[in-house]
Amino acid sequence: MEIEFFFDPENAKCPYLDELDVKLRIIPEKDVAAGVKEPREFRPREAVENGIVPNEWMVFFMGLATIYMNELGIPLDHQYFLAKLPEERAHYSAASFDQMVYSERFGWVEVSGHAYRTDYDLSRHAKYSGYDLTVERRLTTPKEVVEVRVYPNPQRVREAFGNEMPRVMQVISRADPKWLINELNSRGKVIIDGFTITSDMVFIKEERRKVHVERFIPHDIEPSFGVDRIVYVTLEHAYTEVNGKPLLKLPPDIAPIKAVVLPIIRKQEYVSIGKRIFRELSSVGIKAIYDDDGAIGSRYAKYDSVGVPFAITIDDKTPIDGTVTIRDRDTKAQIRVKVNDAIRIIADAISRKLSIMDIARSMGLQLIIRE
Description:
This protein is an alpha+beta fold. It has helices at about 30-35, 45-50, 55-70, 120-130, 155-160, 165-175, 175-185, 225-240, 270-285, 295-305, 320, 340-350, 355-365, and strands spanning about 5, 25, 40, 80-85, 95-105, 105-120, 135-150, 190, 195-200, 200-215, 220-225, 240, 245-250, 260-265, 290, 310-315, 325-330, 335-340, 370. It has 3 domains: about 5-120 and about 220-225, BirA Bifunctional Protein, domain 2; about 135-215, Signal recognition particle alu RNA binding heterodimer, srp9/1 (2-Layer Sandwich), CATH 3.30.720; about 245-370, Anticodon-binding domain (Rossmann fold).
């Protein structure tokens, strides 16, 4: 998955840069050339000011990539950016960094690449398509520019081409002035649409004028992510074993199944409450599973192993006081809440990345530790 982000190279300020609360671990180009293997830490703005990364937009996307991988469960000390030397970069790249993530099985693997492609893409498209892909830049202060213009010499064109004069005049007017002047200076003549134009058939003039706008070709930052590798390192970092039992610690916002509803026993009043909670979870878009088969401990272990972050348990107190417990997959801690509050609490925990501990603190609830 790739992003092509185009920007004005003369105004490469990123207004969001200082909002990134992250340190980037980078092996800069000069360290790579010297054989240094240990990354250095930089704040995003610091990396630009020290010349490690060429511009603010590039380091902004590198910062987002760092946060992105961290939110997938990759610790900051398990990732860094490796600068590519000039001979290692693609010919269009003025700077490139590979985002490396540590894998127990494969060592350090690249999960994303960040290239500063300058104006290569649009200038090449413009050249071969014939379309103008420049963008207008409004100037805060007008500036004076010198333009070289080429005008036909009507008398010499008439003498040379007679009745073809109007067509030749149009040909000269449409020609690129810089190209026409270079050809005339180097060869003394140029052939356009079958007409041979010589230096005496044109007037070359320098004209000065003030401009309030100018046109430029945008530059391009390309962050490119390898989805299969990201999925693999996310699963590898999420997988662990506790007391010999598998545990998949997927972040709640990416866990495919967010919650499991577990009546402690298969008894009608327990089952009906559990199925109502399951339907309500589904109705608000929270992917859930209902399961009333087997011992509660084995069911907890079963859903821990496939990464389900929250378990809602209907127990002996539920029919009496209308409360259920919400269990956290990673800590095994539980809180007891009203049935009507359970859906909102889980939705809030997913969207705001809150743990059971966070919820207990914010709501003044007591933590229950049973395992």
